[in-house]
Amino acid sequence: MMDIAALRPSQIEQLIANISDQDVIDILAGVADLLGNFEADGGADSDKIYMAAHLLSMTPLWSKIAAEQLAAVLLRSDVGARAEFLKGLPNDYAKQVSYLMETSSASDNLDYGEVFAHAAELMQSRIIGYNQSLKASKATKFMVAHHYPVEVDDEDQMFLSGGISRRWLVCTDLTVALPALEPAAALRHARIYGASLSAHNVGNIQNYSQALGGYKVFYGRYPRGDVRFQEDHPQQPVVRAVLDE
Amino acid sequence: MSLDDLDDLYGPCLPLQRGASEAELGVLSQSMDVIDDRTGAALKTYMDAAAILKFPRIFHRTTPILWLIDRDGNARIALEEVVNRDTGTLTYILPRNAPTMRQCDIRLGHPALLKPVNDGEQKSARIAGEIFYDPAENSELPWVISNNSGRFGKRPHLHRRHLTEANALFAKYGIMMREFFVIPVPDPVDGDKK
């Protein structure tokens, strides 16, 4: 995680010259941390949040982070803090992020009867695909990582009830404040559910792909406008990692 | 020097942008010094000490010196103070990223480098920013001055030359720093303006 509040000019200069994929991951986690620890006070702290976004905007960062990813981070922060952060972003990018946050909130009004019918169909097709891939591997341990901190969801329960359940460990209850950048951290902080591994957290695909040192990562993305499986599910990438292939 | 000359050098003296907390408007930072021959020389000695002492190097890697150019073209400096909301008592000096403050505490940023104003009045300055100990590979100067202030430093009319002039004001006292100019957020394209 990069300490966004404490970024110095030399660090910004380095990021302007060269911003790596790992930097992007670290910054995104740092933004979540920043917005989780500073409140918009109408004074110095508001200014700190605003200027942090502004300094980051001097780098090519936002061309490397999908608006959906940043929206997911901002959605978990205090409304005032997120508003200050948005003010420091390039205008067009801020508009995209704001739009995504608004549409995410709007989907709270969906009829969940229809949602779950559709979700079940989607889940089934996805799980069949995952199972085929997983069965073809020689791995004995797997992990599921979501971007959001929730209890075991419908999709995971389908995994648990499936034939591969003994090869999984379920971990959940990770929060946005946790760095959750590597599986070991996920395991330390997560609640363990039996024999399946499923880490719900705010990492992202690159986090797990890199942290796993090249282990195969399966992932799918809920398409924009797609259903939400539970109230607090934003449309976020889902990562499935093979731990010991 | 006339006010017009000062406007040209450091930008016009304008009320702060964005907001300021009640405390920032009603308090003057206890650590504030106006830079003159005496304080300027002392500040140079303090900053030069970083070449020998680890203490100022470590301290100012994490904790900025706030600076500001006031209406009369004076440079002012202070540390980022945290004070008790009710009593105004100085509680501690805050690094850039500090643990969460208590509810009774509030942080004082750049507006607190100026004397308190009455209700309804605003504090005004020409330009402001931060000074850090922040060595970089491309410079032999370990101290860096920036216009990193949302209230007084990053305004559409301020350009890199204004920061250069502010840096030159410190250089008059032998304080040599490299510059880091925080560019304005790009304006919306015409089609987006309403």
Quick overview:
Chain A has 245 residues and is of the alpha+beta class. Chain A has helices spanning 9-17, 21-37, 44-57, 67-75, 79-87, 91-106, 112-135, 154-161, 183-189, 205-211; strands spanning 142-146, 170-172, 191-193, 198-200, 217-221, 237-242.
Would you give an account of this structure?
The complex is a heterodimer of chains A (245) and B (194). In chain A, the strands form 2 sheets. Chain A has a 4-stranded mixed sheet, sandwiched between helices. Chain A has a two-stranded antiparallel ribbon with strand order 2-3. Helices cover 49% and strands 10% of the residues of chain A. Chain A has 245 residues and is of the alpha+beta class. Chain A has 2 domains: 4-107; 112-242, no CATH class. With 194 residues, chain B is α+β, with helices and mostly antiparallel strands. Helix content of chain B is 24%, strand content 22%. Chain B contains 5 helices and 11 strands, in the order αβαβααββββββββαβ. Chain B has helices at residues 3-10, 22-26, 37-48, 54-62, 160-171, and strands at 14-15, 33-34, 65-69, 75-79, 81-84, 90-93, 105-108, 124-125, 127-133, 143-146, 178-180. The model of chain B is unreliable at 187-194 (pLDDT under 50).
How many helices of chain B?
5
CA radius of gyration of chain B is 17 Å
Largest β sheet strand count, sense and barrel closure of chain A: 4 strands, mixed
Q: What is the mean pLDDT of chain B?
A: 90
Fraction in helix of chain B: 10-25%
Distance between the termini of chain B: 41 Å
β-sheet strand percentage of chain B: 15-25%
Shape of chain B: globular
Could you tell me the number of beta strands of chain A?
6
H/E series of chain B: HEHEHHEEEEEEEEHE
Strand order of the largest sheet of chain A: 4-1-6-5
Whole-number total of structural domains of chain A:
2
| Terminal CA distance of chain A | 27 Å
Shape of chain A: globular
